[in-house]
User: Fold this.
Amino acid sequence: MVTRGFFSGRRPPSDTDARIPPGQYLEQGFPVLSAGPTPRVRVEDWSFTLKQGPRPLKTWNWAEFNALPQSKMTRDIHCVTAWTKFNTPWQGVMIDDILADAGIEPPTAYTLALSFDGYSTNVPTKDLVTGKAMVALLYEGKPITPDHGGPARLLVPHLYFWKSAKWVNGLQFTERDEPGFWELRGYHIYGDPWREQRYSSDP
Amino acid sequence: MTAEPSPQSPWQAATITRIVKRTPRVTSFWFQPSRPLAHLAGQHVDIRLTAPDGYQARRSYSIASAPEAGGGIELAIERLDDGEVSPFFHDVAAVGDEIELRGPLGGHFIWEESDGGPILLVGGGSGVVPLMAMLRHRTLRNNAVPVALVFSARVWEEVIFRDELIGLDDRRDGFDLVLTLTREPARRPSDYSRRVDARMMAQAIERLPKTPRLAYVCGSNAFVSAAADALIGAGVPAGLIRTERYGV
Assistant:
């Protein structure tokens, strides 16, 4: 349905069109969204745990985690609130390297990312491995600020950005695809921006 | 690429039925959806504008009206000069226009009677909009849950819904309005003239008969960060604070 009198809009330059998923616009800033107050997690108190169901598999403290192999990912990110930001540069530990350090293969097909503030979000395990995702420690070469999820946040850039859990403190492997915080509150169970899977009623 | 709404589409056409300027930068638009749209207080809708060449822009707007209010849903839209959707509403949209919308959306920043109270609402600028839906819902339901609203605006003339809020405050039915103006002196004895801080939050909580069961904070990211920190400073547990943030 064409909207009467709507012509201009903030069209992206045509050479960037192919990088912007449907319904998104290009944002130069880095908006902050979250469901509650920003937790201030001190690195002395920080830890990261891999779990299978309720059973811990391995826990790292901040120093141990920072000693894992570090990788860089520069990716376009897409927020469900319709902004897309190009070329965001992150550094951190690939999920593959976390699993390798724990000496395990992914035990189940589904994962819940867990955060210090009680947030959770579900991601199929295959979307976290083979170079697709990391636990990011740096943004633009500097420690991630608390409002953007520091000290550490999950980065799953090929899904809507609510899947990239801020203040992440663990991954829990689950037998079933268990909806997380926003997935229980009307948001899509998978969240592929290229298929515009914003809300639970989207195919 | 402009898919016409099909019966299965979550999008629907809604007709603008009324337009009222609220403040110099905020105007309310009432939309009559073509299909019933049953929302909860605090939810939002997505709006989608389509240009003749198929280009689409979409944004989320909180619903200001109570679920039980007749006459369509009210969105109070702030004009953002560098925006692409809000200037369309302020400069172009007219009564009778059809706009595509989708919703209601959002399952976290909502208040229902079953949530109980007391509740503390903290809004900055247009962040008051979803809080207004909660207040109107409480009023229309004759719900006696104690509520305090701390509403921060730059100046008196930018206090959205000002007359209605003061009218609700005057009812003395368990609702307390606290205005704080950041660029002007306070106008009412109970109001402030500074940015929100922990002491202001502690004093707002003292207006409630007991500590809040839930706190809702909405506004710009900078406002919400400051207000949520102030609430925590006033002793409100982080787990009771729900936030909704706009913009960069």
